[in-house]
Design brief:
Layout: E1 9-10, E2 15-16, H1 19-28, H2 30-37, H3 63-109, E3 112-114, E4 117-119, H4 136-140
Antiparallel strand pairs: 1-2, 3-4
């Protein structure tokens, strides 16, 4: 540890300056003194003068506004998704039965071709029985 003591005098009047003025001058120019000795507030200590702290930084926008806006946006997006999904479900319900009937009609009218042979699809509504797989006993048995 290196300590030193200095006295500041006024050259025009040749007398020492009061300690209060010296302390205020050191507080105002502390950064220049630290840089002159290549030190900082932890390594260069002035007696009876507290170390200077960096002023706290104030954000341009308070933190609570940022948090509030993020949560508010999430809630708005969730409400919009719920409304849009409800509208989509109503449209599906209103279109649903007519589309199902149309697809069944299309299936009835279609004749599929497998291995070059036209095949009629099974009509599950009419209850047709495929005679190729029936035995004699089953033909006489009522359904």
């Amino acid at each position: 540890r290196v300590s030193f003591w200095f006295v500041v005098t006024d050259p025009s009047k040749n007398h020492t300056l009061p300690a209060v003025e010296i302390q205020s001058a050191i507080r105002m120019n502390r950064n220049r003194i630290n840089n002159a000795f290549f030190l900082n507030d932890q390594t260069l200590e002035f007696l009876k003068i507290p170390s200077t702290l960096a002023p706290p930084t104030d954000p341009s926008m308070p933190i609570w506004i940022i948090i509030f806006s993020v949560i508010f946006c999430i809630v708005i997006v969730a409400v919009m998704l719920l409304i849009l999904s409800g509208i989509r479900q109503r449209r599906r319900k209103s279109k649903g039965p007519s589309e199902v009937d149309d697809t069944e009609d299309k299936c009835e009218n279609m004749i599929t071709i497998e291995n070059g042979i036209p095949c009629d699809p099974l009509d599950t509504k009419g209850g047709h029985i495929n005679d190729a797989f029936m035995t004699e006993d089953e033909r006489l048995t009522p359904l």
